Amino acid sequence: MFDIGAGEMIGLGIIAIFLVGPERLPKLAVDAAKLLKKARNLSQLATTQLRENLGPGFEDLDVKDLHPKTFIKKHLNEVIEDNASAVKEIKEIKKITKLDPEIL
């Protein structure tokens, strides 16, 4: 997510020791972990409520799907697939029902 490697984590830890102090660092780490857990729970709750409020058809909703580009691409692909199947059916019907040009 943040693309932080081991070297950066060690550097941030050393900076945190200097800024906060070694005696208060464990309590700060515990508080940060609690904050992250609470934020994750809130986001899951919000996603669940959004799925419930949108109703049927949105059971497989993902937060990434709410990005406008992704949302439009997903729905356009569905329309294109529906049209492609309709065109395929029309071509099959034309093959089956070839008319004699003299009849027309």
In short:
By secondary structure, this protein is mainly alpha-helical. The chain is about 70% helix and about 0% strand.
What would you note in describing this structure?
It is a single chain. The protein starts with 5 loop residues before the first helix and ends in an 8-residue tail after the last helix. The chain folds into 2 domains: 1-59; 67-104. The chain has helices at 6-20, 25-54, 68-96. The longest helix has 30 residues, at 25-54. The radius of gyration is 28 Å and the shape is elongated. It has 104 residues and is mainly alpha-helical. The chain has 3 helices and no strands. Keywords: Membrane, Protein transport, Translocation, Transmembrane, Transmembrane helix, Transport.
DSSP helix count?
Answer: 3
Number of domains: 2
Low-confidence stretches: none
Helix content: over 70%
Outline type: elongated
List SSEs in N-to-C order: HHH
Oligomer: single chain
DSSP E strands, number: 0
What is the terminal-to-terminal distance?
66 Å
Strand content: under 5%
Task: Describe the SSE topology.
Layout: H1 6-20, H2 25-54, H3 68-96
Task: List its traits.
2 domains; membrane; mainly alpha; 104 residues; 71% helix; transport; protein transport; transmembrane; single chain; transmembrane helix
